[in-house]
Every structure is written in structure tokens, then in C-alpha cells.
Amino acid sequence: MTALQIVQTLDRILQQENIRYCHWKSNEHVDAAVEGKTDLDVLVDETEKEHLSRVLTQIGFKYFEAIPCRRYVDIDDYLVVDAETGALVHLHLHYRLELGEKHLKGYHLPWEDLILTSRLYDTPHNVYIAEPNIEMILLIVRVVLKVRMRDRLNTLLGHNYFDGDFIREYRWLKERIDVSKVEYLSTELMGAAAAQLVLQAIESEAQLGQLLKPGNAIEAALRQYRRYHRLVSTALRWRREVEYLSYRVRRKFFEAPVTTRRTPTKGGLVVAILGADGSGKSTVTSEITRCLSQKLDVFPIYLGSGDGKASLGRLPLVLVSRAAQMLRKKRSSASAQPQPTYSESAAPPKSKLSSLMRILWATTLVYEKEGKVRQSRVARDRGMIVISDRYPQTQVLGFNDGPLLSSNNGQAANFPRSLQQWELTHYQNMVETMPPDLVIKLNVTPEVALARKSDTPADVVRQKVTAVKDLKFPRQTRVIDIDATQPLDQVLLKAKWAVWENLQ
After folding, report:
1. Are residues 59 and 155 both part of a single domain?
2. Based on the domain organization, do 229 and 343 belong to the same domain?
3. Angstrom distance (rounded) from CA 382 to CA 182
4. Which of 133, 197, 347, 470 is 20 to 30 A from 77, alpha carbon to alpha carbon?
5. Are 200 and 146 in contact (CB under 8 A)?
């Protein structure tokens, strides 16, 4: 497969602008990098930083900032969505050769000019790559500078540190190098003792373990390039690692809106994806979330009442509703249509018990939605991209994520007027004070929706299709209409691009 169109454009523009660059590591799978499957690890001349920033902006790349404990001095993150495929391309931009332990990168090796001067053009992939002899030296040096005490202990316990990516790159490079040239370059860069260790590692895989020994010749030769004293490095590395792990724990186990990856510099975005049953709303929502969350801080929320996670207040009602549905199915397995849940039905409950259950459902749902909407605001203010499946509205009452105790056709007389007004007021507050920044409407015809979701009553489908099309939003909210009757890949591409264009 050839490089993505945006990668080819990047290469062409950088050459036109005389900006030297080089994909300096992991060229064993550079094909995956130019296809957007892995990062583009690119080294550039640091004197071209401002010039390069303007060029990248012109061709569609956006700058994102890593969280402080994952941020490095001379490494920037630029990303873009490829307009043809919808792939998210991550340009990991290195202005200096910063290497070292994970969470710190405490060494700066002044070898940038050598790498850029000796680069080779890889025609099949439309990208400059590092010369193999230099890349082999860099691969070995990266291992030596990255290894930690825990890695040495794991090795003693029988774990092979050199499995996986390293050994694939090592074997791939070994077929392409000139050992005499590697010896010469290693000696020039690090001295004779370090060069000898490099040659031993190249000669036999059995010698790779020598690279893990503390105080080896390579580590000693590169000690002069440390950015911090050893004790300071240890303290900084542990602080950054503990901070990062705390963020991950809060995000994963407590669903807190904390950043763990990268955010745009001018603030986040709240995106609401709307569509009737059969429009592909859930698929589009999950795919956008999956795509962007690979590299960016994405906060998915569900603001409906059906498939999403229920709050603790509403959970008992959900369990009761499911139990009641199962009981009805057992009593009448030949039922013509599935019974609607409290959130789906626009018709008034017939019994006092049903009325009470609907009131409880609607009340707990108000508090649940308010909490999630407030949480989405916090996430956006922290720079996160909030992807919301559905959003509260007050234009269609009784269904379609509107107030449940009121109805446009006057069928809600069973409920106290004061309770209806209370619910409506809370929905109005959510809509007016916390509207989404972007709304993506997935529009379908009733016929297409019914063909995709045959278990939904036809009159309900028609109502929802019309309601989605007619919904209005404040002026500050941008609304994008997408014809969701198109093939799914086209719908996904347009939806991803809509989100991307609205990121600052």
C-alpha cells in the first residue's frame, strides 16, 4: 500500500520548502507509519521550527499539547485526519535527539546533523529515512539508555527483554548494514570501547544481554550527554510516572474527566451526534471515539436512557423495567411488537403504578443528565473532546431525549402540572446554559430507518426522523447535516472530518 495522500503532501511540501527531515527510527515498519497505523517519528532541523509550524498548519495539521508528565522539551505532536481515508495521522516531531528512560528522556545526543545529512529517500513510501548503519547504532543506544532496574530484574526472572519490536528491527537492520561502517561511526560518536560493544551486539543475538549491564561502555560514553544528575533523573522520572498512573486510575476506574494524552491548545469541544433509530448513530459515535482516542483525550458520554450506563439513582428502575419486560415475554411469547421502555414511549401510562414508575424514571433521568452535561463541560474546559451520543432538547416533548412528563399533543394530563414544569425547567437549563459546540445530524428516510431497525414501530420511526431534522440549536452551536442513507464508510468519513474541522 502507498503512503496516505496527506503523507505524500507533507513530503512534497517539505522538499519544496527546503526543510530537512528524516523518519529516524523504526523504519522496519515505515510502511505502517505512512499508512497512519503507527506514529511518524520525524527528526527536523531545529532552526526550521517556526517555518515548519506554518507549513504544517497550511496543509491541515493541528498542534496538540501532551499532558505535563508526558511532555518533552524538544518533541512536538501534530495530528491530521486524512481526507481520503479518515485515518488519524500522528506526526511525532523531534527537533533534537532526545533519548532515555520512559517518562523522562534524560539524554540529548548531538547527532541530529549526521542523521539529516546521511538520510536516504525511500521511494516506495515517499519519505526520507535514516541511513541503516546509523539507525542500527541508534537502536542499540536507545536500548542502553532506556533500560531500568525493573527491566534487569525481569531479565533475571527469565523475561526476554529483546522480544517484539526490538528484535524485528534488529534483524531487519542487520541485513542492510555494513559492519565496518558501523564500527567507524560508533568509534567516532562514542569511542573505541563503546564501538566494541556495538559490534558484539551485532555479531550475535546472544550478546545482546551485554547491553543491559549497568555502567557498560556505551552508557559510560554517553554520560556526558545527560541533562540531569542521576539522582535528579530518578526523582523526576518517578514523579512523572506516579502522576501519569494517578491520572489513568482516575480516568479508568472513576470515569473522571482528566487528561491522560494530548489536548488542543485553545480548548476542547463538545460534539453531540443525533439520529433516529437506524441512522447508524451508535456506530458513528463509537468509531469517532475509537479513532480520536488513540492519540487524543476523548470523553465519551451517553445522554439517552436506553443502552448507556445508568446512574445509581436510576439503576433500580432499569432492573425493574427489564424484569417486567422478561415477565411479559414469558406470559406472551407471541407478542406482535416489543413493549417500549419508559424513555421510548410517548403515550401516557395507563395505571397508577405505571404513572409512578414513569415519574421516578423521569426524575432520576433529569439528575443523571444534568450530572453528565456538567461533567462534559468540565472535560471540554480541560481540553478534552467530548463525544455525546444524543443530547437533551425541549422542542419535542415526551420522547427523543426531551422531557418525558410533557407532550406536544396534550397526552400527559396524568402527571401533575408542577412536576411537568419542574422537569421542563431543568431541561431548558441544560439546553440554554450548556449547549453542544457541534451537532452532527445523521439524517435518514423513514423507509431506510425501518429497513435497518424493523423492530421499531413505523409511526415512532417517522416521528423520530422528523424530530431530528427539525431540531434547532443556539447560534453558537454549529450544525452539520449528513445524509446517513449513504454507505457507512462515507458517513464515517464526513462525520470524522466535521469533528476535525471544528477543533482549534
Report:
1. yes
2. no
3. 47
4. 133
5. no
When divided into structural domains, the chain yields a total of 2
| 427 and 477 both lie in a single domain | yes
Torsion angle of C-alpha atoms 45, 47, 51, 56, degrees rounded to 10: 30
State the DSSP code for 226: B
Q: Where are the alpha helices (DSSP H) in 157-229?
A: 165-174, 179-190, 192-203, 217-222
82 and 155 part of one domain: yes
- Count of beta carbons in the 10 Å neighbourhood of residue 272: 27
Strand order of the sheet with strand 120-122?
A: 120-122, 127-129, 21-23, 40-44, 88-94, 75-81, 62-66, 262-264
Same domain, 218 and 348: no
Query: Burial of 189 by CB count in 10 Å (0-12 exposed, 13-18 middle, 19+ buried)?
Result: buried
Residue 321 maps to a domain? yes
Q: Which residue's entry shows cell 532552526?
A: 47
Phi, psi torsion values for 11, nearest 5 degrees: -60, -45
- Asked if 226 and 281 sit in the same domain, the reply is no
Please say if the pLDDT value at position 324 is more than 80.
no
Which residues form the domain of 226? Answer: 5-233
% of the chain at pLDDT higher than 70 = 95
Residue 164: what pLDDT? 85
- Write the DSSP symbol of residue 310: P
User: With 60 as the cut, is the pLDDT of residue 71 above it?
Assistant: yes
